Amino acid sequence: STQVGCTLSCKFCHTGTQKLVRNLGAAEIVGQFMAARDSYGEWPSPKDGTARHLSNIVVMGMGEPLYNYENVAKALRIVMDHEGIGLSRRRITLSTSGVVPMMDRCGAELGVGLAVSLHAVTDELRDEIVPLNRKYPIAELLAACRRYVEGDARRRVTIEYVMLAGVNDSVTHAHELVKILDGVPAKVNLIPYNPFPQGRFERSD
User: Fold this and answer.
1) Under DSSP, is residue 72 helix (H, G, I), strand (E, B) or coil?
2) The pLDDT value given to residue 15
3) Facing residues of 152 across strands?
4) 63 near 94, Cβ under 8 Å?
5) CA nearest neighbour of 177 among 192, 190, 196, 194
């Protein structure tokens, strides 16, 4: 997590019903990783050559990481530094709802993996369920994804797509998703919807 609460109000997300309280500091962000490693008995790092149990980080919890970029960038630099935790940038993924200008900066300065919360194949639907789309519509977002991986044949964008019954989960939606992702080196992560009190959606079968 990178914030306490969130301002984005995505309609399928329980966090979106909570007000933004504050940004987390870099130490608090790194501290989550350290606490997880500690729970696995991995801190200090194993010296006997055994594999790590905790080998990857996804910045995809509460909050929009690109709205707390300075602290997130500082935290990830500590995690990647060989005198910090020494985790390869290829083992780190940052998830965003699509803050396009900051995606370009993140790619240039950090070069970690990118995941994008897409969840819809038309602007009309995405405007409704991911309100940030009104500022950065799908075409702009996917153009930023192409820029992010440009010049590195090994890089892929993870497209996150929460499955909402009768809303975005038809065969037509699937075909349209393939179509709009043409030219974007991507893998698609289909996410089961997590119901919550007052939530208005149902999980796809």
Assistant:
1) helix
2) 86
3) none
4) no
5) 190
